[in-house]
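Lecture 7 notes. Example A: sequence first, then its structure tokens.
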Amino acid sequence: MARPLLVSWGMAATRDRVRAAAVPAEELAGSFPEIALPIRPPYPPMEARSASRLPTGKGWLYEPKWDGFRCLAFRKGRTVTLQSKHGQPLDRYFPDLAEAFRALPFKTFVLDGEIVIRRGRREKTLDFDALLQRIHPAASRIARLARETPASFQAFDLLIDEKGKKVADLPLSERRELLDRLLADLPEEGAVVLSPATLDRKVAEGWLRNPGGELDGVIAKQAGSPYLSGDRSAMVKVKRLRTADCVVGGFRWAQSGDKVGSLLLGLYDEAGRLDHVGFSSSFTAEERRELEPILVPLIEPPGFTGKAPGGPSRWSQGRSTEWEPLRPVLVCEVRYDHVSGGRFRHGTKFLRWRPDKKPRACTFDQIQAGQRAAATRV
């Protein structure tokens, strides 16, 4: 079942990281076309819980964790539609992929996979920044980028086969065999690609030790499980870097007061309250200036509805602790080192905006799941 891994993947470079796609997920909202299939969009994809290491024991299928946009691809005849992880239509942002799906020899399917953009010599690196650039209101810009940086789709699961039959209820091992046969004749460097998979844990550990240091992680799935829509119980993700998707609930001005100093980060608790969990201030002077027109139009109380940023402390050393509350619509991914008392112990590193993530999906499960996963490993 294992196939050679032909491309490397990784965290995006920080070029244009502040400006690129700093838009709320709600702006991606839209309607889907009618499509006569047993599974129709919006359909919640199967999800993963976080873990600190790969699960052991028999019955696990391992896959690369691609650094892209999760996507469900639906086709019935000439009708093709692409759905994001959180149920938003992606067709207008990836017209090149929609055409690639229409060009496939089989005219009915629902595939689960990841949208990526390859860059560099022989197209062997992945560029998340280029993906973010696609989330743009101007159709002309999207069309130009589709020509200059075409996207591809890494397919790793099959929910509806080419006959229109629902196969999501079959065990993953059987779905993977059907997927392998369906995509076997497609070119390995085409727009729709079969993502590698292996039953060998040592191979998966090798992916995590990728010497290029660009690996986003590895996914482990229970081979005997059906496709569990919206459920995390049969799928585990292990990342090389500890990252979390956070809501920007507010910001502080720099000491000089003429530019943004730090983003204030939040996660939703079980009661639906947005708690302040830390900050990110890892920006250049130019990036701080670019943040102002992004954040200021969103100033709106209360910002955090649970635990809010605290007042002055003996550690403040004269610095202002005043902050501006924001409408909680922006999501960013940050890298962190430790969590203590439900907060990031130190400042985090801003990695990128995540317009493909809904704010309400940014919960404490991300930073607590590692401990729970350790207790439930097979």
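Example B, a different protein, same format:
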Amino acid sequence: MRYAIYFTPSLHDPLSVAAASWLGRNVYSGEAPEPPAIPGFSRQELAFHTAVPRRYGLHGTIKAPFHLRPDTDEAALLKALMHFAGTMTPFEIAGMEVARLGEFYGLAPSAPCERMNHLAASVVQVFDDFRAPLSEREIERRDPDRLTAPQFANLYRWGYPYVMDEFRFHMMLTGPIHPSLNPRFEKALRDYFDPLLREPLKVSSLALFVEPEPGAPLRVHSQHPLGKLSAHRPFSAGSSADKAMPQGVSSGLSMRRAALAARRLQATS
């Protein structure tokens, strides 16, 4: 099993409902909703071009999928994520838009959002305590010869190339699209999603996703509200929560990093 920390809107958010229909899978239930009627597209064509993002569902990557270290477990990860989310303050991305992202299409901020960049960097740093090192096979799957020097360094240090200065928040909506199809897809995506992007995107939670086995569709394991848990007492040495952490996992270190990340994030607001 692998875990990932993503952003995804709540279950009943209109964007979640529309994206589940577009992608052909509800990331919460795993069910396949009724596909949308997109002028000029058959169901088969839409299903083909959304196969890649369908496995992941609507999400923005914060910490990419990772295996847990052998000296930790899911309960410890959940405790740390619950605490971390409680130290964060919800915020909004002022504008999202349909964007061409290399060979793909997705949703991306219309202007850089420093609050999201800081949140993502904090998550990557704090939860690296839980990540098992990549195997050589996993590194090779990333095709390191095609990475830039900073991306290559990120892959070895953080387990994923597109973090820190290389991070660009986005939510994928298609697989690779041939350039000849760009005008059709861009119009279809804008007609379908633009009405849902007139209001700022609320970033009010982090979601823990799970991949039960290699190649399986990812699903939401749990949602963790930002700020809602800030009244909870932090873990401390000798507390019952701290004692629940498996041997070899420094909960104090993770919690101190979470608190420091929160202060830095607040300072940028």
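Note on Example B: The chain has one domain: 2-268. The two ends are 36 Å apart (CA to CA).
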